[in-house]
Design brief:
The chain is of the alpha/beta class. It is built from twelve helices and six strands. The structure holds uracil (URA).
C-alpha cells in the first residue's frame, strides 16, 4: 500500500506515542508477508503432544561475573584504564543493545561527583551522561549554586552513572546488572577521589547505599564508599513532579553550605 506523507507521518506519531523511540532496522519488515515461514498452529499442537526426548543439559562453566568485575576494576590504575576495563567486560548483556559505553563527563578532579542511574536515549547517542532533558535540568540546578560540569576548581562537577550502558526501553536496571557493574563504580569513586558524592534517585541509592526510599532519604547526609553522601531526587522525577523542585533546592543549598564549611572534607 502506498502511503501519502500525512498518513505516514500520522502512523509514525502514533508509534512514538506508544513508546517506540527508535528504529532497529534500516528496512521495515512487513510481518503480514511472513505467513509462509510461520509455523502452522496444528503442527505446533502435535509437537506439544509428543514430548521430545530430554537432552542432557549442556555443560556450562559457571562464570562469577561479579568476581571478574572486581578483578578487572581493581586492576585499573587510572580512569582511562577503568574505562577500557569496562569496555572489555563481557558479562553485562546491556552492552549488546547499547550504542556506546557512557563513562563520565565533567572534571575528574571535581570535589563533587554525581552518580545517576543509567544512560537514556540521548546519552546512548552522545556517549555522555545526563545530556537529555533530565540532564539539562541537572545542569540548570547546579548552575543555580554556581557549579557545573564545564566549570573549574571548586565549582567543577564530575558526573557518572551506576550503569554505563542504556537498558532497553529505559527500564530499571535489574539487581544482577547492578551487582556486576558495582565494582566498576566503586573503583571509579576511588580513582576520582571526590570529597562528596551526590546520588541522584533510588537506583543510585540502592547501588551505593544498598537501600531505597528517596522520599525519606533525600537531603539527609549519610556515608557511602567512605564519602559523605547526599541523596537527591532524580531530575527526571523532578520533570514529572515539578513541585518537588523546592526540596531539591533545599538539598542544593545544604551541599553548598557543606562545601563552604571545609576546604577538604
Ligand atoms: N538519567 C540518568 O540517571 N543518567 C543519565 O545519564 C541520563 C538520565
Amino acid at each position: 500500500m502506498e502511503l501519502d506523507f500525512h498518513t505516514a507521518r500520522a502512523l509514525l506519531d502514533w508509534q512514538i506515542e506508544l513508546g517506540a523511540d527508535e528504529a532497529i532496522g534500516d528496512v521495515s519488515v512487513n510481518r503480514y508477508d511472513l505467513p509462509e515461514s510461520a509455523p502452522k498452529p496444528v503442527a505446533r499442537r502435535a509437537a506439544a503432544a509428543a514430548p521430545a526426548p530430554v537432552a542432557a543439559p549442556p555443560v556450562v562453566e559457571a562464570v562469577d561475573a561479579v568476581a571478574e568485575a572486581r578483578h578487572m576494576a581493581g586492576a585499573a590504575t587510572d580512569l582511562a584504564g577503568l574505562q577500557e576495563a569496562m569496555a572489555a567486560f563481557p558479562h553485562c548483556d546491556l552492552k549488546r543493545g547499547a550504542r556506546r559505553l557512557v563513562f563520565s563527563d565533567g572534571d575528574p578532579a571535581a570535589r563533587v561527583m554525581i552518580i545517576g542511574e543509567a544512560p537514556g536515549r540521548d546519552e546512548d547517542i552522545q556517549g555522555k551522561p545526563f545530556v537529555g532533558r533530565a540532564g539539562q535540568l541537572l545542569d540548570r540546578m547546579f548552575d543555580a549554586i554556581g557549579m557545573g560540569r564545564d566549570r573549574e576548581g571548586g565549582a567543577a562537577l564530575y558526573i557518572t552513572n551506576i550503569l554505563p550502558w542504556r537498558p532497553p526501553q529505559n527500564r530499571d536496571p535489574n539487581p544482577k546488572e547492578m551487582a556486576m557493574m558495582l565494582p566498576f563504580v566503586t573503583r571509579h569513586v576511588a580513582l576520582a577521589a571526590p570529597d562528596i558524592l551526590v546520588l541522584m534517585g533510588n537506583i543510585s541509592c540502592q547501588g551505593i547505599l544498598g537501600r531505597k526510599g528517596i522520599t525519606r532519604m533525600r537531603g539527609q547526609w549519610t556515608e557511602g564508599l567512605d564519602k559523605p553522601v547526599l541523596p537527591m531526587f532524580h531530575p527526571a522525577y523532578l520533570l514529572r513532579n515539578p513541585v518537588m523542585k523546592r526540596e531539591s533546592w533545599a538539598d542544593l543549598l545544604t551541599l553548598k553550605v557543606r562545601l563552604g564549611e571545609r576546604e577538604h572534607i
